[in-house]
Amino acid sequence: MDSETVPMDTDVSSSEVESNKELNAENLKNSGNELYKQKKYMEALELYSEAIRLLPSCAAYYGNRSATYMMLQKYSDALADAQQSTSIDKEFTKGYHREGKCLLALGKPLAAIQCFEKSLVIQPENKTFLSDKLLAEKVKKSEDEANRHHSAGDFRRALYCIKQCLKEAPNAANYKLFKAECLAYTSQYEEALEISNSVLAFDKRNADAIFVRALCLYYEDNIDKAQQHFKHVLKMNPDHEKARETFKKSKCLIQKKEEGNTAFKAGEFQHAHRLYSEALSIDPLNKLTNAKLYNNRATVNTKLGNLDATVEDCNSAIALDEKYVKAFARRAAAYTSLEKYEEALRDYEAVLKLDPTPQNKQAVSTAKLELKKSQRKDYYKILGVDKHVSDDQLKKAYRKRAMIHHPDRHSNDTPEKQKEEERVFKDVGEAYSVLSDPKKRARYDTGADLEEGGLGSGFGDMDANNIFQMFFGGGAPGGADFGFGGGFDDCGGRTHFQQRPHQRGGFHFQF
């Protein structure tokens, strides 16, 4: 029906209209209360809203709708209604109380305390108001502690404190994002991202949530993508200090790392070492990037011949990233060069476990062989020569060692000393017998002597005196003569010896 044709009751007074509005609004409120008791909050919300439309000057209606919004965990809407109720009625204690409850739920305990104090001014004996005020003070204390630990860089303690806040305000976005940030700083990226995404699901322009996401990307060594997020945060909020500071760190870190790589490729190892060290000082919390920097510096230390420093840098890299294959392999190589074969084998086995390739399986086999080789007699050390010794140098080394340790030279020593010198003399002869034979030496160097068959059975029973006798002109099989005559140089002088029958090999050398 057209509105212009509706008959109007001109006899109804404006006071009667207002009275009807009040009555209708009150009926709507009462019906809303019944629905509220039945926990039908959405239906109750509609009735309270209609009552407010009819009578917007009633503080109680806003109070009731505020309570309903609270049950729906819509605290921002609840806060707006609570504040409206107290602006209408300055003595509306329930309004102040609900305002404080909403503020606490939104992670604003200081403002909540102030609201509870207002309600207590009106009703100082109200135990509920007092209890909620004490609770807000407790949350504020935990919040202050969390901020203090965060500023000190103690993110684990900060995380503990903010969890105490979340017990009382589990839906506070600021507390949740504070927790997520601490999780990121303590390498708990998956949970940090989960919290960040949950906040962004309701507020896509939350700069703090995007910052947490950027922080996780940065600490997971996805720096390029992290920098894009930092830029987005700063575009939304140019005053976001944390985003600005971390973005700056990320740029410095990448620059120093690239400069170090360039210096290394140019063979400027000392310069590369300094640049990697500078990069490591930029952000100690970036574990994965720093692990790579430590490994890079370990490579430089190897080039510089500082193998102990190589091991230390690899230790640091592995402490930051326990699955860092390259660091394990680098340390294993350094241990091998340092002749720490057990440690090297342990690292190669770790490499194989992390990266089970045929190449790494072969590396373990080689490390096991090197360990076995290290546990046998080291003939080169026994003769005091290196592995590249020539035949002439080998002869001279044997001549020197044999003369020093020949048992007849120690006939006046204690029985224990004589026994030790005889053992060494035998080892010297054994070492020379192997290293002077090209085939045996080759098998010894490759570790073939450790395989089945070795260097020949019964080798350990050889008579060192026979080797000594042949070497010093006693007659070698096939007419071999080493040409050293009947004497030897001892400490720069000439010492002669005479041959006489002896039970060892038939001769005794009188020094």
From TrEMBL:
Chain ranges of the J domain: 378-448
Keyword Repeat: yes
Region (Disordered): 1-26
The TPR repeat ranges on this chain: 25-58, 93-126, 207-240, 325-358
Pfam short name (any one): ANAPC3
Keyword terms, alphabetized: Repeat, TPR repeat
Record Gene3D superfamilies: DnaJ domain, Tetratricopeptide repeat domain
Protein name in the entry: J domain-containing protein
Naturally occurring in which organism (per UniProt): Bugula neritina (Brown bryozoan)
